[in-house]
Write a structure and sequence with these properties.
The complex is a heterodimer.
Chain A lengths: L1 H12 L3 H12 L4 H9 L4 H37 L20 H15 L3 E2 L5 E2 L1 H4 L25 E2 L4 H11 L5 E10 L11 E12 L3 H16 L5 E6 L4 E10 L22 E10 L1 H6 L7 E8 L1 H9 L12 H4 L3
Parallel strand pairs in A: 1-4
Antiparallel strand pairs in A: 2-3, 4-5, 5-9, 6-7, 7-8, 8-9
Helix pairs in contact in A: 1-4, 2-4, 3-4, 5-10
Chain B lengths: L1 E3 H6 L1 E2 L5 H10 L3 E8 L6 E11 L7 E6 L4 E6 L9 E5 L14 E3 L2 E3 L2 E2 L27 H4 L3 E7 L10 H12 L2 E2 L16 E2 L6 E8 L8 H9 L7 H13 L3 E5 L7 E5 L5 E3 L5 E3 L5 E5 L2 E5 L3 E2 L11 E8 L2 H10 L5 H6 L7 H16 L3 E9 L8 E4 H8 L5 H10 L6 E2 L3 E4 L12 H12 L21 H14 L3 E2 L5 E2 L1 H6 L20 E2 L4 H10 L7 E8 L14 E9 L3 H16 L3 E5 L5 E11 L2 E9 L1 H6 L5 E8 H7 L14 E10 L4 H9 L4 E9 L8 E10 L8 H19 L2 E2 L7
Parallel strand pairs in B: 13-16, 27-30
Antiparallel strand pairs in B: 1-11, 2-12, 3-11, 4-5, 4-7, 5-6, 7-10, 8-9, 14-22, 14-23, 15-22, 16-19, 17-18, 19-20, 20-21, 24-26, 25-26, 28-29, 30-31, 31-35, 32-33, 33-34, 34-35, 36-38, 36-39, 37-38
Classes of the chains: A alpha+beta, B alpha+beta.
Chain lengths: 341, 779
């Protein structure tokens, strides 16, 4: 039994799983001392056998129990060691590989989502348009200044890169004039032959909206623009309409929304609001009631149907939303710019 | 245009509008306010003086003793401004006057010298920011004039006006708008008419102007205009030139009718309005000699052109200090002709800007009468005859507005009485107003833009105020609903790109000749702009590749490895008069030190997997790519895209390091073919994997190998790697693949696995001449 005590003592003193494994092999392994002792029992005289067998077996049980207990303790200790040193939970994490969506593309998706919730279909049309769809059908006559080479690009042979998505209105109305009512938005690229600055780029996106039905009035346009701007800029947004002139709508209005930074006050803590220039309002787009002659041009009877149209620029909204002070950044892809989104 | 709130208010009666109210009214009328500048009322005792003599102050280096005169009285003041000099017109604050800051000017003694007042800087007068010296007034101003006449208390408003409204390019027109918006009463200038005057100078007959009026006047008056006239011109940004020219400018600003005065003695009658002849030329008032074309409308006398109609007068007949008789032209020129001339000669003048809007013929006699009246006042003008050629019809237009249309278009109830009131405010006469209709018997001549009942609706809502329009949402009763599944698929594409760690970019659709050539594209196959902004953007791109290489070039120092994608339509030329095809392309570009193609191919595989479409890549030949390193992307028997490693020669031009690979495919085709992924069941029993390394000719693609192995039952072949180089014979490559052996009902045996491997090896040897890679142990 002294032998047993020494064995268990050594087991309890084992400081690592490796040392414990060595002891296990030495005691209860195939050629371990306890195993040998058990084997030796068979060689004893029958009268000694029972007693020695019992003792050897008890020794085995005790050693195995001690091994188990010690192993458990050592494993616990190992786990504790693994988490012994604290982590700097504030250190930056390991960066997963992720892409960067383009801010204008994100805004375009958000805008489409807003209109989808309002029941609008997405319509598309060609970027190279005929003069009829881009101008004449929209009552922009041959001598209108907008048709000058200074404002519009022309292709060498024929046609032109569209100057607005309003051309899509015409195509859609022509194709669906027998399936009224119409409720669409048309997002897409448009092109203007104008010098660039921080607010304007010669190539940009536009979203055009069109609703044609019986009994559509100006108040419907106002309510729609209001809902839409709340969906895009936030529920506390207010809008105002100002009179304006477009050849293809009558009445025509300009739409302003309350500034997202100063919330319409025009003031910030120190001085005027830089975004709206202190007016409290942001100019966001144009709109109006579809001109009766436009409806006639596409074969819709203006004495029965009326409609409204509106258009605005996703780049402008993206610039406001993300605080980008030069819209040209969107089009000169620099990864240093894009990685911030 | 710029306008003055004080000037507008001078045309309104019984009203107490502030400058702020005027701005608000103009804004409600639909005019876009760009800027407003306010100035305070100046003390009458601040006057214009002429510096006669400047002497050094005996006691102070920096001070001067300055003798000035108002013309009636002389003063000596002490002044420290560095810019004081003899002959200058400056502002003197006389003793007792009060500056805008509240400072009172007293008689003072500075270092022993008495100063009888103070010469003021712009800043001290509240007229500007400059306080480095005294304000220099030009010599066109009569001395003795009070500065408050030149700079009355005012709000100067810079505004943008709608292109269809000529009338709001005039103070009278703007006052009419303010009156309508505020309910103020308006008093328009009503000069005595000139129609009864005797016949004027001879005018040749060629009916190319809507109206042409020419008056002969004697002028004989002071050399300088009175302060009020100079002040009003200056407020709107115009310089005083002479009483005659100032009056023409004043009438243009006030009524919107441009006028031009010729020196009668320099003109050889008759005057004619005609198209110019090729070879003719004209030296305009700005001193530039201009060669004329047959598209130019000119005023000509017997010797040739004397003015570009509606744009600018000629130098030969310019009025000057010696002018005693003038021919005053008041005409109605064609808007388009004037606009094109102004553009052609880069001469967008105040006059041409007004003609461009299209002036009515009724305006001319009013402008002439007003000018004659004012010339009588400031230049001793005496009318000696008027010629009037009227070649266009006066505006006679009746509009009937059904009240039902009004209510329908506005979407809220407006009574015919409110509508009548609103039109009345705009001085639009209503002859009948009932529950059914509103009749405007004659559209005012100054509103030719009003043609339809809908135009009247806009006028009514403008006066009622857009702020008073309620907000409603239209009801929606479609006959059937249509669903659009394309957008959810597009988002799936976006997610794949995002998950692959790519940047989304937007690039211009127009590219340069060099960009097209830099990737070996045929320039003739591209649509070209007639009038590009610059040569950088002259062609419509048929592929995003050149744009993407520019992005690589621009960002060549950004990281070791970068990938990006874009979705954009491209333009594929068709027949001459046809609109081009505009497929929408998805393009992916990756730059990295090596294996760029593999990364782009991985994106393609992931996309095909996510959208569950069967995209096939077939080796192809494409000049944009390195030889033998590109493929065509096929879907359902049609080529829809291409993929490849960009030729290193093109990459080197971008000065970027490493490899660049590019993928481009027609998005719509992929989206249309997309189906939901199908669950293939779970394997219930373990499989056995066998790795195999074989040597095959380089032309044998993985797709070919996979194809033949796919015909074997119970095994799936997986690509591990391929290798060309040391240890592999010329023209051959080593291909490592894994055979995964499975059995539907139990775990396959080692014996079965060995059989599958043996069979696979045999098939590959038979089809492709594959050999087991030397040195590989046989299992």
């Amino acid at each position: 039994m002294i032998e047993a005590k020494a064995m268990i003592g050594r087991i309890e003193a084992a400081s690592s799983l490796e040392e414990l494994e060595r002891l296990r092999v030495a005691y209860v392994g195939r050629k371990g001392s306890v195993t040998e002792q058990l084997k030796a029992v068979g060689a004893l005289a029958p009268e000694e056998r029972a007693l020695a067998g019992k003792a050897a077996n008890e020794l085995r049980v005790a050693v195995e129990a001690a091994l188990r207990v010690r192993e458990e303790r050592l494993r616990e200790a190992e786990l504790e060691r693994e988490i012994a040193s604290p982590l700097d939970v504030t250190a930056p994490g390991i960066r997963p590989l992720v892409g960067h969506r383009h801010p204008v593309s994100v805004v375009l998706d958000e805008l489409v989502d807003v209109f989808w919730q309002m029941g609008y279909q997405v319509a598309e049309g060609p970027e190279v348009e005929t003069e009829w769809y881009n101008f004449e059908a929209l009552l922009v006559g041959k001598d209108h200044p907008a048709r000058d080479m200074q404002d519009t690009f022309y292709l060498e042979e024929a046609h032109l890169p569209r100057t607005h998505t309003s051309a899509v209105q015409i195509r859609y109305m022509q194709e669906h004039r027998d399936e009224l009512p119409i409720r669409i938005i048309a997002p897409g690229k448009v092109y203007r032959n104008e010098d660039e600055d921080a607010r304007h780029s010669w190539s940009f996106y536009q979203i055009e909206g069109l609703v044609v039905d019986e009994g559509i009035g100006l108040s419907d346009l106002k309510g729609t623009l209001e809902s839409m701007m709340r969906g895009v800029l936030g529920e506390d947004t207010e809008i105002r309409l100002r009179s304006n002139y477009f050849p293809y709508t009558e009445p025509s209005v300009e739409m302003d929304a309350t500034c997202v930074i100063c919330h319409g006050s025009g003031r910030l803590d120190a001085g005027g609001c830089h975004l709206c220039g202190g007016t409290g309002w942001l100019e966001l787009g144009g709109a109006g009631m579809v001109h009766p002659d436009v409806l006639k041009n596409v074969g819709i009877d203006p004495t029965v149907y009326s409609g409204f149209a509106f258009g605005f620029g996703p780049e402008r909204i993206a610039a406001i939303k993300y605080g980008v002070d030069d819209v040209r950044e969107f089009w000169r892809p620099s990864f240093k710019f894009l990685e911030q989104f | 245009m710029k306008c003055s709130s004080a000037w507008i208010k001078s045309l309104l009666r019984r009203t107490m509008l502030s400058g702020y109210d005027v701005v608000g009214a103009l804004e409600r009328a639909g005019l876009e306010i760009e800027q407003t500048i306010e100035s305070k009322e100046l003390d009458k005792r601040i006057v214009v003086v002429l510096v006669k003599k400047v002497a050094q102050h005996p006691q102070a280096d920096r001070l001067h003793l300055v003798d000035v005169t108002t013309g009636e009285a002389d003063y000596r003041v002490v002044c420290g401004a560095p810019n004081v000099r003899e002959g200058l017109n400056v502002a003197l604050a006389q003793i007792g006057s009060v500056l805008p800051s509240g400072e009172r000017i007293e008689k003072a003694t500075l270092r022993g010298e008495v100063s009888e007042g103070m010469l003021c800087s712009e800043f001290e007068l509240g007229l500007g920011e400059d306080h480095n010296g005294i304000m220099e007034l030009s010599n066109d101003v009569a001395i003795g004039t009070s500065l408050c006449d030149l700079y009355p208390a005012d709000t100067i408003i810079d505004l943008k006006t709608p292109a269809n409204r000529f009338d709001v390019l005039s103070v009278v027109g703007l006052a009419r708008e303010v009156a309508a918006m505020t309910g103020a009463e308006m008093v328009s200038p009503s000069p005595p008419p000139v129609e009864g005057a005797e016949e004027g100078p001879a005018v040749g007959h060629e009916a190319v102007a809507g109206r042409y009026m020419l008056a002969r006047l004697r002028v004989d008056g002071p050399a300088l205009s009175p302060g009020w006239l100079v002040g009003r011109l200056r407020a709107l940004g115009m310089r005083s030139i002479s009483p005659v020219v100032d009056v023409t400018n004043y009438v243009m600003l006030e009524l919107g009718q441009p006028l031009h005065a010729f020196d009668a003695r320099k003109v050889t009658l008759p005057i004619g309005v005609r198209m110019a002849r090729d070879g003719e030329s004209l030296t305009t008032l700005d001193g530039v000699r201009r060669a004329l074309t047959a598209e130019d409308l000119v005023i000509a006398d017997r010797q040739g052109p004397i003015a570009l109609a509606g744009v600018m007068g000629g130098a030969r007949t310019e009025v000057g200090p010696a002018t005693t008789e003038i021919l005053l032209e008041v005409a109605t020129f064609d808007a388009t002709v004037v606009r094109k001339m102004a553009k052609r000669y880069g001469l967008r003048t105040e006059a041409s800007a007004r003609f461009e809007r299209g002036l009515p013929v009724e305006l001319a006699p009013l402008g002439l009468a007003r000018a004659v009246e004012l010339l009588g006042e400031v230049a001793g003008g005496e009318l000696r005859g008027v010629t009037d050629q009227l070649n266009a019809r006066r505006l006679e237009r009746k509009i009937e507005l059904p009240v039902a249309l009004l209510v329908k278009l506005l979407g809220f109830g407006v009574s015919h009485k409110e509508a009548e009131m609103a039109l009345g405010r705009l001085q639009i006469e209503v002859s009948e107003s009932s529950k059914d209709r509103i009749v405007v018997p004659r559209v005012p001549w100054w509103r030719p833009d009003l043609t339809l009942p809908e135009d009247l609706v806009e006028e009514i809502v403008r006066v009622l105020g857009y702020d008073n329009v309620p907000s409603t949402l239209p009801s929606w009763r479609p006959k059937q609903l249509r669903f659009d599944h394309r957008r959810s698929k597009r988002r799936l594409v976006q997610e794949v790109m995002f998950g692959a760690g790519l940047f989304e970019v937007m690039t211009y659709s127009f590219v340069s000749l060099e960009q097209l050539e830099s990737v070996g594209l045929e320039v003739e196959a591209h649509l070209k702009l007639k009038n590009p902004l610059s040569l950088e953007q002259a062609y419509l791109r048929s592929t995003l590749l050149p744009s993407h290489l520019s992005v690589v070039a621009k960002n060549r120092t950004y990281g070791k490895e970068v990938g990006f994608y874009e979705v954009s339509h491209v333009f594929c030329k068709r027949g001459r008069a046809e609109q081009p095809d505009e497929p929408e392309m998805l393009a992916v570009t990756v730059r990295r030190p090596e294996a760029a193609f593999g990364v782009v191919k991985g994106v393609l595989d992931k996309l095909a997997w996510a959208l569950n479409v069967d995209l096939m890549v077939r080796p192809g030949v494409d000049d944009a790519f390195a030889p033998g390193r590109s493929g065509e992307v096929w879907l359902a028997g049609r080529m829809i895209g291409r993929i490849g490693q960009v030729h290193p020669a093109w990459v080197r031009q971008t000065k970027a390091d490493g490899e660049v690979a590019y993928l481009e495919l027609e998005l719509a085709a992929v989206i249309a073919a997309s189906t939901p992924r199908q669950f293939g069941g779970l394997r219930r029993f373990p499989t056995i994997a066998r790795d195999l390394a074989v040597v095959v000719p380089v032309a044998v693609t993985w797709q070919m190998v996979h194809g033949v192995l796919a015909e074997m039952a119970g095994v799936e072949a997986q690509f591990v790697s391929d290798y060309v180089g040391a240890g592999v014979p010329e023209g051959a490559k080593s291909l490592a693949l894994r055979l995964v052996v499975a059995h539907p009902d139990r775990t396959p045996t080692e014996q079965e696995a060995a059989e599958v491997e043996h069979k696979a090896m045999n098939v590959l040897a038979r089809k492709f001449g594959a050999k087991r890679r030397a040195g590989e142990a046989t299992a």
